[in-house]
Records
---
Amino acid sequence: MTPTPTLLFQYSALSYNAHRIHFDRSYCREAEGHKDLLVHGPLSLTLMLSVLQSQLAREGDVCEFIDSISYRHLAPLYVNQPMRICVKLQEPTAAKHGKEDLVGKGQHSEEEKKDKDEEQIDTTKQLEAGRNKWNLWVENQEGSLCVKGTAETIKRRTLSETG
């Protein structure tokens, strides 16, 4: 995609970001020393999340949701310069529902739980269908890495309204 001045202006308005590096070319070049208007860091994140969301599974009663993301900007992205937003699944992992997995995630062992707490864990186990890890990155028009990150998704079964 190629970010336009209009996109940067609209994102500035949407996010209440009035920094001149996103809409004033003269300021950006003369005061900040950049060659053109800068793409917002959070806009890069929004675009990565949009591309990732478009790749997530929706099969029957199982939907995949973004659970967490971490990212870092390595180089600036500029207006009117094409960028490539990339996502790649690392390696699918199956959901684990053993006692050891629950303890590893900060849960107490079954011996330490009340009956009600154990029922809540069982419900969670039925809903969770798996987790995936993704690599995310944005390249500029020369193919240089400008933003990199990782995301974790979770697959969950949706509950039917009839039962």
Note: The first helix runs from residue 5 to 14.
---
Amino acid sequence: MKKISKFLSVALGLSMVLAGCSSKEETGGGVSGENEDGKKELVIWDWTDPYLDDKKKPMDIVMDSYQAENPNVELNIEKITNDSLRTKLMAAASANNLPDVAFLDGQWLAEFQAVGMLAPLTEYTDESGHASDYPEKVWDSVVFDGEVYGVPGDGDVRSLLYRTDLMEKAGLDPASPPKTWDELIDVSTKLMEAGKDEGVKYGFALNGGDSEHTSMRSLPWIWDMGGSFVDEEGQPALNSPEVVDTVQFMSDLVKKYKVSPSDSYLNKKVEVQGLVNSGQSAMAIVGSWEWRSDASFLAQEGLKGKLASAPIPVPNGEDPDKAATAVGYGVWVVFDHSKVKDEAWEWIEKVTSPEHQVNIFKDGTGNMPLRLSAYEDPIFTSDPVFQTFVDILPNAQPRPKTLNYELLSQSYRQAIQLVLSGEMTPQEALDEAQAKAEAEWKE
């Protein structure tokens, strides 16, 4: 490890200093592993959403089951918004007060692993057989130098949402959605014409705002062409031909073909959801969780029976049967300082079990399982929309495994905004993004 981010290196340095001058009992339950009643204390930091009143049933089941099987353990769960968790963990590292367990956004794992905060879990995962029950690329994302440092929880994929009623009205086969860029443009134009009398303004709602969703919904196009945000040596590749071609296509959707909103450079997930639910857009790339929670596409009265899902259309000349999709997920980790690692692993086994992941999909946040065995549940054949998620999972790819991911994604999104707003060409904006990434790169 040559260099690490200044933020993480400072946090790690402070945690080491504090560890050297503090007794275990002074540093909180996460370090001592025991509370005032003599019970072992398991300190867990988790995302807020699974504990909301309308989504908490699956977590209630897990907590009740864990407590019944571990009466000598007191669960201390702090619920933290995903946007705040990374900052709070850095502050906790500086104060030598990290939890035992946390649910990290998968894109942060390489960064935390690089500074030695995390405990290897290989002995646990080898015994449990977890590796064989995940898509290969997903499992590879948690392995560093042969050691496992996290276990993926529930997650999501992205697919094309489209209006079947407008397909019929335009004289198109609803069972044959667009599969390539050219077809996406052609179908978008026809759906706009077919739906103009009922308020359809756009064929395709495009994510172009400063949001991670912009990266996650366009990365599949880059991957389809064999590219990525990084090259084979793991160095930044934001101005590679594959990235330039993708951003040029996004620009053409807005400026040349005018099938996407002119203000797409401002449109984040919420704006795209609004365009679909209001009937203004006929198609969009959306996340699997948005169908049943968040945007609740399937529950929209005006759209019932009119929506379908399909793989994301691929760049011209690429194989539609191999259409990539971006998979997002949280990762359960154990911090190296923890004195209750066995108890922490028992928690992780419960919250990553196939049964729990199915419950999350049915009764919780709507996130989908990443455990392959979970798809034996009949819920996934109950609706063609859900079946699409299963069908595309083999082509799912996680974000590049680099501690520089946030730098890459932010630089890329800023380039897209500059292009879609008309301030720069794709090549100019991505050359600038590449220069920024190279200047701030961490090895």
Note: The two ends are 7 Å apart (CA to CA).
